Each structure stands twice: as structure tokens, then as C-alpha cells.
Amino acid sequence: MVFLYETNTTSLQQEQNECSNQFYSRVGLMRDFIFRKIYQVLIDWPSADIRTVPNVMHQIRCGTDEKDAKIEYQINWFIDCAETHIHNHRNSFDTFCLEGEYEEKIWEIIDENDGTISYQFTRNPDNILSSAESVSGTLRHVASRYHFPGNKMHVNTQQFHSVTPIIGSEERVLTFLVKEKYTVPVDTFILNSKPYVDSLDDDMRPATKDERQDMYNKLIEVLTKNNTLYTIEKLSLELQ
Questions:
Q1: CB-hemisphere CA count at 13 Å for 202?
Q2: Which superkingdom, per the lineage (predicted)?
Q3: Which of 25, 37, 91, 231 is 20 to 30 A from 194 in CA distance terms?
Q4: Which of 88, 92, 83, 128 is CA-nearest to residue 109?
Q5: Who contacts 27 (Cβ-Cβ below 8 Å, separation ≥6)?
Q6: Average of pLDDT values for 160-174?
Q7: % residues pLDDT > 70 (the chain)
Q8: pLDDT tens digits for range 45-100
Q9: Domain regions of the chain by residue span
Q10: Please, are residues 138 and 157 in contact by the beta-carbon 8 Å criterion?
Q11: Per-residue model confidence (pLDDT) at position 148
Q12: Distance of CA 88 to CAs 80, 92, 222, Å?
């Protein structure tokens, strides 16, 4: 697979591995850790940083790790988890599924020297795409993974994927993310078999009052349903 940018893959992968090892040795990321993070968000709800990507998701920023400010925690509650553009991410992350399910399709450009051309678009921080740049090879779906309650997946920065909801799944997808910001700059791209893509409609804004209330109700439901140590009674005492 050939890309039009260069990166120090060995250095980046080493940093990603170190991040993952440090995190798991420190916290283990048991379900109790996730529920504790949810509980902490609820205790300080008026200050909760909640954002919405219309028609896509509500997102809660849960702060950074106490021992490593490069590690960030986040909750995503999807309105529609479909991601049709084939893309990579600026930061690698671990995603833990709490509710709902989806299929992640992994894509690669495979060059078989048959003259086939695919296209790469640089995604700028303001969500503006560059003009198409041609890449030799065919864009192919090479693997799939399924995300479901209790499952953990790692998504690295050089993995190009799209996401498809599972037909018949009634629950909206709710995930907990552990992200690492790297010192090695990582560019983001969209891949396509054609020299154009539909416009990106995923601008983020602060959540409305009603959206915040919906998110609050969902997190209360998660703690209650999972019979956690962080009970509603305990939360009520904390808020008094």
C-alpha cells in the first residue's frame, strides 16, 4: 500500500505500544473503571463537556489520565454509527463497547500493477478536503471486525476503515474511548475509488439542554442496568 506522505512507522508504532502497555498495566481498564469514570462525570454534571455531531453522535470528554496527560477518556453515544467515508484517525485509541453493535470494515489500496488508480484526499483540521491525489492500486475491503457489548477494539492511526450498523440491532451504540495524543504528527486522509467524495457533514457543536438531559438519563440507565457499585443512591448523597 503506497501513500503520498511519509511517516516514521517504527517510531509511531513503538509509541503506540508503549502507551497501550503503560495504560493496561496501570489501570487494567476493567468495567468498574469505566463505570467509575461515568460516575465522576455525573457528579460534576453542570461542568460536563458534552458535544454533538448532528445526526451522528453525542460525545462526552471525560478528562485526562491522572498520571499521563496525553491519555484522554471519552464517551460516544451514537445517533447513527454509520461512517461511510473510508478514513483513518489522527490518534489511535481503544474502544470499549457498552451497548449496541456494528461492523468495522478495514480497507487497503492493493497495487497489482494493472493500471488501476484509487484516490486519496488529505483531511485538514477544519474538515476541508484537498484535491484528489492518485494512488496506484485498487481500494479493497480486506477484513471485518464486529463491536458488541463487552468487546474491546484497538484502532491505530494507519488503519483505514468504515463503519456499518448491524441490521436488526435495536440499541444505539455506546462506547468508551481511551485516546493517546502522539508526539509524532499523523495526517488524516479519506480514500475513494473515484476522484471525488461527498461533502463531510460532521461539524461538532456544544450539546443543547435537551441533548445534555438525554445523555444524563442514558448514563444513569447504564449504571442502574449494570448494578454497579456506583448506585443512584450514592450519587444522590454525593450531590447533596
A1: 19
A2: Eukaryota
A3: 91
A4: 88
A5: 33, 65
A6: 92
A7: 81
A8: 999 999 999 999 999 999 999 999 999 999 999 999 998 999 999 999 999 999 99
A9: 9-239
A10: no
A11: 95
A12: 19, 9, 30
Number of residues that this document lists for the chain? 240
- Please, are residues 7 and 186 in contact by the beta-carbon 8 Å criterion? yes
CA distance 180 to 17: 11
| CATH of 9-239 among 3.40.50.150, 3.40.220.10, 2.60.120.10, 1.10.760.10 | 2.60.120.10
Q: How far apart are CA 177 and CA 28, in angstroms?
A: 14
d(CA 90, CA 189): 9
Where are the strands (E) in the chain, listed by range? 49-53, 57-64, 71-78, 83-87, 93-99, 102-110, 117-123, 133-136, 138-147, 152-155, 160-165, 174-180, 188-192, 205-206
Q: Residue 33 CA to chain centroid, in angstroms? A: 18
Quote the pLDDT of residue 169. Answer: 83
Q: Rounded to whole angstroms, how far apart are CA atoms 154 and 160?
A: 13
Question: Rounded to 5 degrees, what are φ and ψ at 28?
Answer: 75, -15
Query: Per residue in 190-221, pLDDT tens?
Result: 999 999 998 777 789 999 999 999 999 999 99
At residue 109, the 3 state secondary structure works out as: strand
Q: What pLDDT is stored for residue 167 in this prediction?
A: 85
DSSP-assigned letter for residue 130: P
Q: 56 with 212: CB under 8 angstroms?
A: no
Average pLDDT over residues 33-39: 92
Angle at 220 between CA 145 and CA 48, to 5 degrees: 85
**How is the beta sheet containing 174-180 ordered, strand by strand?**
152-155, 93-99, 174-180, 71-78, 57-64, 49-53, 205-206
